[in-house]
Structures are given as C-alpha cells and as structure tokens.
# Entry
Amino acid sequence: MMALVDIIVPTYNRASLLPETLKSVQQQTLDDWRCFIAEDGETPETRAAVAPFLKDDRFTYLPGTHTGTPAAPRNRAIKQGGAPLIAFLDDDDLWLPEKLKFQLSFMKQHPACALLGANAHRWDGKYPLETGVPFFPQMPGTRKISFESLVTTNSIINSTAIIRRSVLSRSGMLNEAVELASGEDYELWLRIAPLGEVWILDNALAVYRDVPHASIREGWTPRVLNKKLIFIFSAALRGSETTKSPLTYPENRSFALLCRRQLARLRRQELLQRFFPERKAVKSHIKTGLLACGRHIGRLCSFFMKNPGPREPAIFLLCPYYHTGGAERVHADIIACLQDYRPRVIIGCKSNNTAFKKAFSQGSRLIDISFFSEKPLWHPIIIGCLTEIINRTGNAVVLGCNSFLFYHCLPYFAEKIKKIDIIHSFTGILEIYSLPLVPLLDERVVINSKMLGAFAQVYAEHGVSPVYLNRIKTIENKVPVPAHYQKKSFDTLRVLYVGRGTEEKRVHLVGKIAARFSAINPDMRFCLIGDVVDSVSPEDRRYCVFEGELHDDAVLNSFYRSSHIILITSKFEGSPLVLMEAMACGVVPIATHVGAIDAHVHNGSNGFLIDQQDEHLLVEAFVEKIQGILADREEYHRLSRTAYDYAVEKASHNDAFCREYVRLLTQPKQS
# Structure
C-alpha cells in the first residue's frame, strides 16, 4: 500500500552520523511513510550503518554510481517512491518526533501550498540540544514566503522541506549538474515557487548539525558562494533538458524578471570581486572626497538662499516623484496644507509623468534634482550639498516622503535639524533599510494602526528599543467623500482599475479577468485608468477599455460614480488611496489580501479579499467573486452602501489631516 509521504535521504561518506538521522525518522509520531536511503556510490560502512533499519520494511536502501552531487541519489529515490508528498532529510540532520505530523496537517489544510519548510535548531553537537539556537532566531511566526523574499534568501532549510509530488511534473526534478552541488535544493525551490504557495512554519521541527565535519560548505569564500548562486539562478531560469522551467511560462514573467535581476547583481558582484579586490577602500575614499565637494557647493548655494524669519520654520520635503500614484497624491495634500509656509520640495528620482507636478509647485518651491541624484558619481555630491544647505538654514525641518535619498542624507544632518519620515506601505524594503537610522529620527508617520503594529513587530525582531515606538504617529490620509450616497444603476456594468502599470500591481491579471468575462458577460466593461496598456498582454487588450492618465479629479470621480467594482490585484500594497476614493463613491472593492488593505476592506462587509497566490487560481477567484456580487442586486446595494458609510466614517479624519501635519512640521524640535 502506498504511503502518505516518501522521505528522501541521500548519503555519502556519513556512516557515523547516518544511524542517528534514521533513528529520528523511525521515532516520528506519524508512521505512514516510506524512507529511501540513496547512497551516492556504495560502501561497506554505509551498508553496515543502514542494515539494522532494513528490518523495518518502511526503509529501503538504494546504492548507486557515485556522481559527486546529492541531486542524483535524491532523484533516484524520488522515482522509486509514489507518495503524494515528498520530504527531504540530509544524512547529518535530525527530525524532532512531531515533525511529519505538524507539516502534513498543515499541507492538508493548505491545498495550494506546493513547498513547506520550518524552523530548525542549530546544534554544534557538544552541548545539550536545548541550548542550540534556532536557525532563524527572529522568525516572525508561520508565514507565506513571497517569491521576492525567496530570490533574496533561501529561507527553506532542506531537511525541513516537504513538496507535493504533483508539482515535479511541471517543475522538473532536481538538477544533477555537479556545479550545483549543495545548491540544487535552492534551485528546485525557485522552480517550484511559481507553481503554488511557499510557507514556512515557525516551529523548530528539525536539528541542523552545525559542526565542521558535517558541513559541505565549510571553507566557502564570498567569491565561491557568489559563483554558486550564479549557477543556481542560471539553471532555475533555463530548466532541464527534459522539462522547461516554470519561469519560462508567460504568466510567470514577473517571477523570471526578479530572478534575472538577481542574476545580474550577482554577475556584477563577480566582476567587481575579480577586477577590483580593493574596491571597498577605494570607494570609501572617493565617496568622502565627493561628499566634501558637495558640502563646498552647498556652502556657496546657501549664500544665495533666503532664510525664513527667526521664528518661522524652514520646511523641506524630500519626495521621490511627482508622477501618478497614491503616495504622490498624499504628498500633494501635505504640500497644500503647508502652502502658507512655502516649503521647499526636492524631487530625487525621475518621474514617469507630470501628473502632480502642478499640484506640487502651486504650494511650494519645487526643486527637481533627479537628473543628478540618479547618477552614481553625483549621488554623494548631492548628499553633501543638500545636507550642508539644510544644516545652514535656521529652524529647518525635513520630512522624508518614502524617499531613499532622505535616508542617505539622514546621518549627515546636524543634530538641531528636526527629522521626520512618512511611510505609506509596509513592503519590507524601506522599513528594513531604515532600521539602523531609527535613533536619528525625531518622529515617524504611518497611515494606519496596522502599520504601527507592523513596526512594533519589526523593531522587536531586530532588537530596536521599544522606546522608539513612542516616536511613531498615525495620521490617516484624507478621503474626499460625496455629501450623499448615490445608488448604482445597472444599465451598464463597469469594473474599474485605477493605478500604475508597475510590476507589483499585476495589471496583466486584470486583462486575464476581462478576457474570462468576455464569454460570461460580453456587455461587462473593464475600464483601466493609468498608463497601463503595455502591462496587459496583447491578446487580452481587446477586452479592456484604456482611459489613459486622468489628471482631472472631476473626470476621475465621474468614473467612480458610474462603476460598480474596483479591482486591486497587487502582489504587495500599503493602503492604496484609490481604494478609499472608490469606496467613497459606493464602488465595491475586490482586492488581494496583502499589505494594509484589510485595515479598510472587511471581507464580506464592505468588499472582498482574495487569498490565492497562484495567478491562475487568483484570476478564477476574482471572476467567481465578481459574478457572485453582481448576480444578487440587493446584496450588491448593501455592500455598496456599507463601503460608502465606511468612507464617511474615515472622512472624519480629514480635518485632522492638515492640522496634524502643520503641527508636526512647524513645532520646534524637542530638546
């Protein structure tokens, strides 16, 4: 009878450690398994170590030709088995008794999970196991691993991994290339991840032996590791001779792009290591010289700048862009609140369009330095110049608006400068990047209480003192709300998308949803607002109406008033402003369950959240939900009215928006 899980244990020259490993398998509280011990070669020592376990017919010994890579014996063992689940265990590691029970229960509850890992104890073998530290000591609970995260770090410990056998037919087996040895598991994870969800349990369910004679990576230099990663990403993108990599599928192009970007970084790093071994010291000297040059330019510029009166604040806003975007709309609202103070607004990055340029310049002195700041040679000069000017300005207050330039400048600001930042979404990028600089910030602004809780967790995980949480302030964004609720007409059904066409927005999924509806209800109109034509697959464009960029609020509001549903298909988000703008006009949102969206969209009450990660299933879930909502008119009107009422409730913060930002940016720094 077929077992529920096949356990794959490749082994080579580990006869002294292997019996403990196999004993930990035998002690599992779940006993519906078969264990395949696949030796890379055949030695009397290994055969003798395995012999006592073969009395248990759940163990099978598979000697074979020596290849020098664990992928070959693993593949050989996988082909011998037939269980729907496959668990991997290295021959020097151990499992805790509840390991299989916990993980198989999780896989049953999460049918979309294709790959599951767990935490592990890191053990040196000298002291009691209880004294070992977790492999991931600050892991934030059981969580779904995004592909972006997996590309950056292999967080799946091989000896904790379980996969579904069904995904191997699409991902292909392990790559047996010798240059991938000890990285073949990571390469497989990169091919499996686009095919389903990847999760990691916070429980420590295995023991990772961290001892010299058990480590095949002992003695690896950064250069060797970098070269190994280049092989891994190249192989993952290429696939095998018999199976195309899922990263070559059109629907997975966003995943493939992330891999290619990481591969480009690794190759650049390899070139730098080869040709510029002393580059760190050289770069440090160059940067110091360019900063000094920038300071001299800043001193010269400060002579020509008009300072405010002795009691007036000099407000500087460091913004990345003035193009279309929810964050840029909020920045425009902040500038409007501060127009009496004529703040200086510095734009640090090249904008895709000029959507908010007029709104920015009407209430401020707009300075666009993107031409210089995005050039590597000019970057330290800009930092030196900008910080010198601000340091020489009396009563200066600096607000960094989702800006990397602000964080680069932060260490060079004088102590007397009041320094504040605002973060609109919790993506794990700016928040982590800014952690070492937290003590330099006088105050931080977040846009909802969920983000405040996320910061508390991140601070705790990274050892940042909880004292700095007192510097975080929540200021909700402004929400323009019509005076009266307008009941929707069903003469023309309209589904709306509003936003950018950037990768994380996944606008191509809106095109797929529209294409699916062409057969269900050809009269349904899918209107896409923004510069998004190129983000939708050519074959799906004929099912969409592209309205382009809309810079007139009155025109945009007319679309909100005549639309029934707004879609948000993002991979990650903060708290998108278009969501609240649409709900204020009674539009029912259907959104992926990411970021802080669930702070406003309450599933089944004023909208719907979609939890699927696989893009095929995600499209189907959106289609099913749209059909269900529009089929029941009474239920739709209830949802629409509830969305409007929620926006009205949030609009109570509108008066506080300007008041809080003016107070924050005009009050002197506390000593």
